[in-house]
Amino acid sequence: MTWQQRINSALEERRAADAFRVRRVVENGAGRFLTREDRQFCNFSSNDYLGLSQHPAIVRAWQDGAARFGVGSGGSGHVSGYTTAHRALEEALADWLGYPRALLFISGFAANQAVIAALMGKDDRIVADRLSHASLLEAANLSPAQLRRFAHNDAGQLSTLLDKPCAGQQLVVTEGVFSMDGDSAPLRALHDAAKQQNGWLLVDDAHGIGVMGDEGRGSAYQQNVKPELLVVTFGKGFGVSGAAVLCSDPVADYLLQFARHLIYSTSMPPAQAVALSASMAVIRSEEGAERRQRLAEHIHRFRQGLGALPFQSTDSLSAIQPVIVGENSRALALAQALRERGMWVTAIRPPTVPPGTARLRLTLTAAHKAQDIDALLEALHVASQ
User: Fold this and answer.
1) What is the arithmetic mean of pLDDT over 37-64?
2) For the residues 114-139, what does the mean pLDDT come to?
3) Which of 90, 175, 228, 372 is catalytic?
4) Could you read off the pLDDT of 284-323 as tens digits, one per residue?
């Protein structure tokens, strides 16, 4: 088979399974509304959970940062790309979340890959929730360590796997809030299981940070758990982009020596770090608390309405509210039906989710209004007839 034949075969397989991914050009894609081809849609596919991506103070902070530092960092943080703006953000994050150190990364994907690649050796074992994010599972598969998966949120099976002999160290991997199901991990039980075998817990809290817990400190803080490694990302609750790893002083120093994703990547623009500091200030403020309360009200309103409709969902109390329909073609048809009624939703299909669980991944934000939630429920009701 030639290169072209291999590529064509893979593409045709995706198309035949109704799993072919397509990007669509939109305007204002992170706010309450987005526009495509001069038509406005109410946006239920954004991870901008607190509606901060267009917050005037955060936008202004980025502009001020760009005026001071320029629009790029100019290099790796190990060369010349680590500025006072980066240091201030790292120190503020560490203080806020209760860790000795924070290290900034250009993305959550890079942070997860970097930590696992740097820490795990051939005698070690990674035990990951089977629904962990692709960045975590890919890093685990690429590492020399042994990978074992435990049933979703099943601390008992995790303990059984950790009990098996292991010549090296063991790392338990999970998300705080799962990106496709929207449910939360039982972090206390997972951490206890890891500690019983002298293992460490890595929590990717991309969908919890900023949104859950006191001052938006996230899933782990809400459950009174302090994992050895906490990854927080800034493209959701913070409304910006990038990520950080929270850890001990020795681990931070180790990652600075051995995390290739950190050493060999251009650091985030200093202006972005300035904007993230401004975003954190809003999250921690009374305004941030009000936005979290408004989001919680939207979630309650939606779940009450969804319960009366003939759709399968999950136990999610987060901003992520999946509507599981099963077949890929049905998910695509339902998404199209909602778009015809002015709702921007996205059908999520395998391999992103397990086979037979194609869904609409609906996301609610503090930027929505109560009437938006009601309109979405009405659209779902009509589509279910």
Assistant:
1) 96
2) 97
3) 175
4) 999 999 999 999 999 999 999 999 998 889 999 999 999 9
**Residue 105 DSSP label:** E
Considering 135, 159, 179, 279, which one is annotated as catalytic?
A: 179
- Domain positions in the chain are 24-49+286-384, 56-284
Distance of CA 263 to the CA centre of its chain: 23
Question: Of 48, 90, 181, 204, which residue is the catalytic one?
Answer: 204
The b-or-e profile of 268-288 (16+ CB within 10 A means b, else e) is: bbbbbbbbbbbbbebbbeeeb
Q: Is 253 a catalytic residue?
A: no
pTM, rounded to two decimals: 0.94
195 catalytic, yes or no? no
Show the beta-strand stretches assigned E in the chain: 33-36, 39-43, 101-105, 125-129, 146-150, 170-175, 200-204, 229-233, 243-247, 320-326, 343-344, 347-348, 358-363
Domain 24-49+286-384 homologous superfamily, CATH: Aspartate Aminotransferase, domain 1 (3.90.1150.10)
Neighbours of 215 (CB within 10 A): 16
- DSSP-assigned beta bridge partners for residue 103: 245
Among this protein's residues, is 28 annotated catalytic? Answer: no
Catalytic choice (55, 86, 236, 261): 236
Instruction: Answer yes or no: 226 catalytic.
Output: no
Sequence-distant (≥ 6) Cβ neighbours of residue 131 within 8 angstroms = 152, 175, 178, 180, 181
Residues 204, 174 contacting (CB under 8 angstroms): yes
Q: Which of 73, 129, 132, 133 is catalytic?
A: 133
**pLDDT tens digits, one per residue of 224-265:** 999 999 999 999 999 999 999 999 999 999 999 999 999 999
Residue 91 falls in the annotated catalytic set: no
Active site residue 9: no
Q: Is residue 156 scored above 90 in pLDDT?
A: yes
For residues 125 and 158, the answer to whether their CB atoms sit within 8 Å is no
Q: Is 175 a catalytic residue?
A: yes
- CATH 3.90.640.10 correct for 56-284: no
Choice among 207, 261, 298, 368 that is catalytic: 207
Q: CA dihedral defined by 209, 50, 379, 306, rounded to 10 degrees?
A: 50
Burial class of residue 127, CB neighbours in 10 A (0-12, 13-18, 19+)? buried
Question: Hunting for tokens 């090296």 — which residue is that?
Answer: 168
Q: What is the pLDDT of residue 248?
A: 98
